[in-house]
C-alpha cells in the first residue's frame, strides 16, 4: 500500500469539506492505500475571513460561529506539518490548489522540500489552467492536469509496486532532469458511484452557518462541468483543455447519488445538503423530476442549489424544487447592467428573464439568493448604481456580493492585462471581500469600497 498525505492549505479558513480530497481519499482507501491530511483550517488565528466579511456587510444573519468552530490562537504551522509528516511517513504528498490558496500552498511546498525528499504532486484548477507556473517550480515533482481521480489512484498503485509512473495520463512528471508531459486520459467513470470519505476531516467542517443557525451540512455534486463561455469564468478554458476527451458536462446516476446522500445522512447525522453543481437545474426535465421525487422520499432534508435564471422558467420545476425541500436557490446576476452582462461577460441572459424567474420563485415561496460581482474592468459608479436599482426591483431574499477577481485562464483576465489594469503575474492579495486586484480607472477606490460595503443596505433600505 502507498501512503498519501493531502495538504489542505485553507487560506481563508472557511470550514467545508473539499470535494476533490474527499473523493480521492475514498478512491485510495477502497484500493487499500493509507490516507491522511494536514488541514490548517482550525490552526490559524485570523480565520473565517469569508464568514466575518459576510456578517460585516449584512449579507448573512449573524451566528456565534466561534461557539461551534472554536477559538484558536495561532499555532506553528510548520512545526505541526513536521509532526504530521514524521508520524504518517507519506510516500507522496498531494496538494489540491486553487488560485486563492496558492500562496499558502507554495510556502508549504518549499518548506517540505527543504526538509524532506518526498515526491510532491499538485493538482486542481490552478495547475490545470497555468501548468507553466508550476513547471518552473523545482520543488514540485508531478503536476496533474484536469480531473485527478484516475491519476491519483494509478500513481499510488505504482508507488506501492515501486514501478515507473512517468507515463500516467493527465500527469506531467519531472524525471531524471526531463519533463514528461502525458496526454489526458478518459474521464473518471462514475459507474458505480464512489462515495466520498469524510472520516478524514475534522467534524467542525460539517457545521455551516445558514439562515441564522448552524447546520450539520453534507456537500455533494449531481453534475460536473458548465457548457457556457462566460468571460469571468474558467470553464471556457477547461472546455478547450478537455476537448476530444468526451462530454464536458456530465451527470451522475440519480439513484446512486440518492443512495450516497442517504448513507451520509445517516452516518453523519446531516441536517442540510449543499450541492456544488454550477448549474444544477440544467438536468433535463424528467431527470430533475426524478431527483425531486427520490430526494423527498429518501432524504427529506433542506438543500441548496445554484443555477442559471433561464432554468427556473418552468413553474412545475420550481414547485417541485420547493416541495422536495429546496431551501434556497442561488442565481448569478453578476451585474444589473444587461449590456455589460451580455456583451462583456458573455452571459446571455436578459433582465426580463431574471424578473420572470424570480417572480416564479416568489410564487412558490422558494427562497432566492442573487449573486453580484462588483469591481469589473472599467466599471463606473453609475454601473454599480444600476446593479443596486436592478436588485431593488428584483427583490431577492438575500444577496451574495463579491469583488471581481481576474482569474488565470479567463478572457477577462486577458482583457485586464491588455488594458494595463493588472500585471501578468500571480497576485497574493486575492480576496472576494476586502480588496480589488485590478486598477480602477472610472471610479475612486474610496467610492467603490463605500458602495461595496453598503450594497446590501442600499438595496434593502426602507424609504423614510
Query: Which structural class best describes the helix and strand composition?
Result: alpha/beta
Given this structure, which CATH class of the largest domain is correct?
Answer: Alpha Beta
Q: Estimate nothing, just give the exact number of structural domains.
A: 2
Low-confidence stretches: none
Q: Would you identify the CATH architecture of the largest domain?
A: Alpha-Beta Barrel
Biggest beta-sheet profile: 7 strands, mixed
The CATH homologous superfamily of the largest domain is termed Aldolase class I
State which percent range the strand residues make up.
15-25%
Descriptive labels:
464 residues; alpha/beta; Rossmann fold; seven-stranded mixed beta sheet
Amino acid at each position: 500500500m502507498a501512503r498519501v498525505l493531502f495538504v489542505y492549505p485553507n487560506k481563508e479558513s472557511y470550514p467545508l469539506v473539499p470535494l476533490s480530497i474527499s473523493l480521492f481519499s475514498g478512491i485510495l482507501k477502497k484500493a487499500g492505500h493509507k490516507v491522511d491530511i494536514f488541514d490548517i483550517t482550525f490552526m490559524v488565528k485570523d480565520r473565517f475571513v469569508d464568514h466575518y466579511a459576510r456578517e460585516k456587510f449584512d449579507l448573512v444573519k449573524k451566528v456565534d460561529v466561534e461557539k461551534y468552530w472554536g477559538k484558536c490562537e495561532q499555532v506553528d504551522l510548520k512545526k505541526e506539518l513536521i509532526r504530521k509528516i514524521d508520524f504518517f511517513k507519506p510516500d507522496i504528498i498531494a496538494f489540491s490548489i486553487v488560485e486563492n490558496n496558492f500562496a499558502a500552498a507554495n510556502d508549504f511546498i518549499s518548506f517540505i522540500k527543504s526538509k524532506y525528499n518526498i515526491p510532491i504532486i499538485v493538482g486542481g484548477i490552478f495547475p490545470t489552467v497555468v501548468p507553466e507556473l508550476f513547471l518552473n517550480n523545482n520543488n514540485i515533482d508531478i503536476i496533474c492536469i484536469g480531473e485527478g481521480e484516475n491519476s491519483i489512484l494509478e500513481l499510488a498503485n505504482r508507488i506501492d509496486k515501486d514501478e515507473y509512473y512517468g507515463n500516467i495520463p493527465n500527469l506531467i512528471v519531472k524525471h531524471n532532469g526531463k519533463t514528461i508531459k502525458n496526454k489526458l486520459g478518459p474521464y473518471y467513470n462514475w459507474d458505480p458511484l464512489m462515495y466520498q470519505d469524510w472520516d478524514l476531516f475534522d467534524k467542525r467542517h460539517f457545521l455551516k452557518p445558514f439562515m441564522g443557525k448552524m447546520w450539520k451540512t453534507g456537500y455533494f455534486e449531481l453534475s460536473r462541468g458548465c457548457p457556457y463561455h462566460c468571460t469571468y469564468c474558467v470553464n471556457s478554458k477547461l472546455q478547450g483543455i478537455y476537448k476530444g476527451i468526451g462530454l464536458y458536462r456530465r451527470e451522475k446516476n440519480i439513484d446512486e447519488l440518492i443512495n450516497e446522500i442517504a448513507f451520509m445522512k445517516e452516518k453523519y447525522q446531516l441536517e442540510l445538503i449543499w450541492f456544488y453543481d454550477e448549474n444544477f437545474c440544467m438536468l433535463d426535465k424528467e431527470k430533475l423530476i426524478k431527483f425531486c421525487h427520490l430526494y423527498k422520499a429518501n432524504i427529506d432534508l433542506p438543500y441548496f442549489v445554484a443555477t442559471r435564471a433561464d432554468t427556473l422558467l418552468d413553474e412545475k420545476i420550481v414547485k417541485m424544487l420547493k416541495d422536495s425541500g429546496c431551501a434556497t436557490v442561488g442565481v448569478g446576476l453578476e451585474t444589473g447592467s444587461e449590456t455589460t452582462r451580455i456583451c462583456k461577460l458573455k452571459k446571455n441572459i436578459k433582465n426580463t428573464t431574471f424578473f420572470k424567474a424570480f417572480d416564479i420563485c416568489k410564487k412558490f415561496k422558494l427562497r432566492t439568493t442573487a449573486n453580484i460581482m462588483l469591481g469589473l474592468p472599467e466599471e463606473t459608479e453609475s454601473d454599480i448604481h444600476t446593479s443596486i436599482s436592478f436588485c431593488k426591483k428584483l427583490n431577492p431574499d438575500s444577496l451574495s456580493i463579491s469583488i471581481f477577481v481576474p482569474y488565470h485562464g479567463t478572457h477577462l483576465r486577458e482583457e485586464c492585462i491588455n488594458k494595463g489594469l493588472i500585471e501578468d503575474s500571480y497576485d497574493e492579495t486575492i480576496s472576494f471581500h476586502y480588496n480589488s486586484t485590478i486598477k480602477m480607472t472610472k471610479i475612486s477606490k474610496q467610492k467603490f469600497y463605500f458602495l461595496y460595503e453598503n450594497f446590501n443596505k442600499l438595496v434593502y433600505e426602507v424609504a423614510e
